[in-house]
Amino acid sequence: MPENHVCTVCDDTFESEKALHIHESKKHPSKQAQDLQDLIQKFDQEASEVEKLKKKKEHLEEELEEEKERNENLSETLDHLKQQKQTLEESLEERKQRIEGLEDQLQQEKESEEELEEELEQKQEQITSLEKERDSLESSLADTQNLINKFETQVNEMDEKL
Ligand SMILES: [Zn+2]
Strand, helix or coil at 5? Predict the structure, then answer.
């Protein structure tokens, strides 16, 4: 029969684990207490590991929550910025349209100013031409008056002769 259960304290061998345990509790009671102590310590260590893992998990969950909040804040800020951008674009578009309107108005005023200048030039030409006609008429009038004077003199002379 194999005797494969060896007492770690005294190296005695036993046929079964139960026999070894009976031997240990009788011959080495402090060994059993030590084993129990070791077992309890092992449990404590495992419990402590579990506690650490729990805390780590909680910590990760908190970080995840914070990350989510940060994301929410960022998307709120992003939305706000997008709205601001839209408002700016609208007001820019309005300014552009106002500038275009003013440019059109200015163009129209320039054109009507040019028209007025042309009209003024035409009036000036008309005045000059009318002045020439007036001078020519005055000259004709003077000539006619001379002729009248001449005829009158001739008529008077003929009257005196008759
Ligand atoms: Zn022993």
Answer: strand
pLDDT tens profile 46-99: 999 999 999 999 999 999 999 999 999 999 999 999 999 999 999 999 999 999
**Cα 27 to the chain's mean position, in Å?**
86
Distance 46 CA to ligand 1 centre (A): 30
Rounded to the nearest angstrom, the distance between the alpha carbon of 8 and the centre of ligand 1 is 7
Question: Does the global pTM surpass 0.85?
Answer: no
Q: What is the mean pLDDT of the chain?
A: 92
Count of the separate structural domains present in the chain = 1
Question: 26 CA to middle of ligand 1, Å?
Answer: 9
